[in-house]
Amino acid sequence: MFYKFLNNISIILILLLGVSLTTIGQTSDPVLKYNVVYNDGDYSGQYLEAEKVLYSEVNFYRERHGLSALVLNETTVNYACRWGYYMMEKHVDVTNNFYQHSKFGGAEYQIPSTTSEIIHLVYFDHYPSVTEAVSALMYGINRGPDHSILGWTQSEPHNLCLTQSIAKYYGCSIFVEKKGVWFVLYGVVNMSCVY
């Protein structure tokens, strides 16, 4: 019961945050300028609005745990966008999806040992709103073909990644496309301790 209360509070906070982000660190553009580069290319399905809110929510979550905010970084965004797009392109359907960390990709997708990565694959029966997308990634949902989606904050290894004190830089991507009867969402967050 208390967990549901906390989950509802988190969703309300995401709604209140909307897309009005506080400028943090190196970027003066609240539109995640590094992510926009990928959206202008052939990266169809990129969900920029959700990426903005996810950035804000990750930093808000870190703040609640007494940690410093992460700073957007072009290199870290590059890792996340390329890998998120690659996974979406490889996804065929629920039984033939591609859901692996970038270390299983080619050399061009490898991230350095100073960078951590968390990924998620979520199915929706409709195009998710920004709030639904971010809530599913961070806090989980009870929807989709397997009905057991845990969010990053509910998984000990993912939560440890989100709350690592040495992390300084951040990059993310969220891609959503309709594949068969489901709207498929891939989320990738990379955090690094070096620029």
Distinctive features:
alpha+beta, two-stranded antiparallel ribbon, 6 strands, 38% helix, 6 helices, 195 residues, single chain
What does the model show?
The chain has 195 residues and is an alpha+beta fold. The relative contact order is 0.20. It has a four-stranded mixed beta sheet, with helices on both faces. A two-stranded antiparallel sheet has the order 3-4. The protein is globular and about 40 Å long. The protein has helices at residues 2-17, 33-40, 48-64, 74-90, 130-139, 156-162, and strands spanning 71-72, 115-124, 140-141, 149-150, 169-179, 182-192. α1 packs across α5 (130-139) and α3 packs across α5 (130-139). β5 (169-179) and β6 form a beta hairpin. It has six helices and six strands.
